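Hi C.,

You asked whether I'd gotten around to modeling the 520-residue construct. I have! Everything is below, sequence then structure, no commentary in between.
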Amino acid sequence: MTDYYADNHDRSEPTLGDRRQDSHDSRGQAGHRGRGPDQTPGAGIAHERRDERRYLRVKRAFQVKMDDGQVFDGVDLSQGGFAIRSQRPIREGARVQASLLIQAGGAEMTVPVSAECRHCTTGEQGYTAGFEFTDISPGHQELLRRLIRASLSGREMDLEGLMAGEDPQTPRKRGGAGQPQPAQRPPKPLGRYVALFMAIGVLGLVAAATAYRNFMLIEPSFAAVTAPRIDIRAPGPGILQAHDLKAGDRVERDAKLTSVKNVDLESDLILAQAAQSYNSQLIENLQNNIDGGASQVSLANSAKPANGESVSFETVSPEIARARIDQFETARDFQNSRITALEARQSQNEVYSPCHCLVAWALSSSDGTYINESERIMTLIRTGENDIMVEALVHMDDIDRIGPDQQAYISLPNTAGPISARVRSVALDIERQPRAGFPSWVRQQQNVASVLLVPEEPLPADSVGTPVDVRFTETPLVGSAAEWVWQGARSVGQLVGGLVDSVTGANDETPLADSERQAS
């Protein structure tokens, strides 16, 4: 039936400006229900996603066939409705049953719909009526959507295109012709998420180990690698003889280190030897005269020349000469003893090594260095088994938490992994045996106690004097785990830092010489 025409054919038509406004308002009502008439045209389109362009109208050729057989030319088409051109006005609110006749290539497609007239405006070519779909099957709705998207992309859709699974609006590049496009994006690999969670777990573990190490373990005020020290001092004043020893050299037991030349001692020895020879000659001459039966014997008046003066002689009887021989023998024996003492003193000027040691410091012997008695010539350190230990100064507030054989961990610079150690002794003062490698000014701190640690694995001799990081633990299991985790993270950091320095060309700091870091 043709009950969709308006009954009143003489209704007043709006002006051109009103007609344009009514057209926009009516399209807004048909395309976007629930929006106010004061919205600007196209505002809804700007905020729509690509897959939500339901009410965007396209211009394309199609016809609308009503259920009574009348056919109208289409003006525009959208997923929500259509507009037709009519010679007679269409009544607003009229419900119709129609079929959309759409050309797709060389074929014509029919889309049956139910629609309702939302507006009817007049124009130069007649009346334009806008309809909104009230009933359309899902299959026809999808077909209509693909036709509209093909028109928006500038491509003409045919039956083969409709049968293909491709969305024609935004065709994507493909590696080859005819290669099928995957229906959906493949899932991301699980490995990257596993690696991410593992990295987060490792960082959390390192953070927990660092916090436990810094707040739960006992940290000393200062710690360094030490060893028993032997100071070689000058036995007397004199000139230090040449030697080629320097810090870091090893010396064997009883090996000659150097010597001191004492000019005064050598002079005294020469004079004593001369006096001894003089007395021996006097005794020999007197004995020859007495044995020859002489009635008078020439006798020197002194057993020792004084100040280099000439010796005077006198004539005496043999009895007196025999008495003087006894005096000369006594003087000779005294000179012999004096010579022995001077030779003993002179032998002490030859300095020998008391042990298998490492030279920590040596006084230079260039340019005839003069030294006084008891002045230090060299410093040796013992490097035997259980000689190299670690000494730590612990504050008195924490000393009650440390006892003999307690577990501790030592971290040497530029080494991977901690070194386990045991507490040997805890004392308020250092041992009687002086130890090398610990600065004297550090020992002057107040409210600290000295703790000696015996490493479970030997430390290198060249590490004496090196400051180390020490942690005492009361729970060995947890403390060991935290220490190993922290040391591993530090090793990785050092490795990365070394790689960065090698790439950037940065020079490593020159390590301190043993003579500079060795404490006296």
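If it helps when you're writing up: The first helix runs from residue 16 to 31.

Thanks,
B.
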